[in-house]
GTP-dependent dephospho-CoA kinase
Amino acid sequence: MKLPDSIRDQFKTPLGILLPIGEDNKENIQKYLSKNSYVVTVGDQTTEKMINFGLTPSLQIIDGFEKRQKRDLPKLGNATELKIDNPAAEITLESIDLIKKAFTMTSPVRITVFGEEDLLVLPVCIHAPDNSVVLYGQPNEGLVLVEITTEIRNKAQTLLDLMN
C-alpha cells in the first residue's frame, strides 16, 4: 500500500497527544503509562529516548535513520530482533503480518526495518493490545503519545484505507 501525495497532509496530524520538545521527558511520559502498559515505540530517536529513561518498550520499530540521516541503532538490550523490508511511503502486507506476530511474542521485541518505518504507526495502532501506548516522533515538534482505543483503531484504519 502506497501513500498517495494527495493525502500526505492528513498524515501530519498527530494521532494522539503531542508532548512538545522539552516536555517529552520521563515524568510526562510516565503520566500516561500504567504498570501493565504495552509500550510501542516507532522511530529510532523515540526508542532510544525511552531506553535511556529506563523504560524498555515492549515493541520497538526502527530503521537506522533520523530525519532521513543515517544514525547508529539504539542499543538492542535483551530484545528479540526481527527484520523486514518496507519501502519509504509504503506499508507492505509483510510488515503488517510481522507486526501482528510481534504482538504475540514475549517482550521486548524489536523490528528493524530496511526502508522506512514511519507509516507503520498505522498497523501498530490497529493491531496493538488494548492496554497499549504508542509513541512516535513528530519531526521538529516533539513526541506523540497514543493511548489505544476503539476510536484510535478506527481512525488508523480509515487512514490505512486511504492508501492504495
In short: Residues 51 and 148 are 21 Å apart (CA to CA). The chain has one domain: 16-66+74-162.
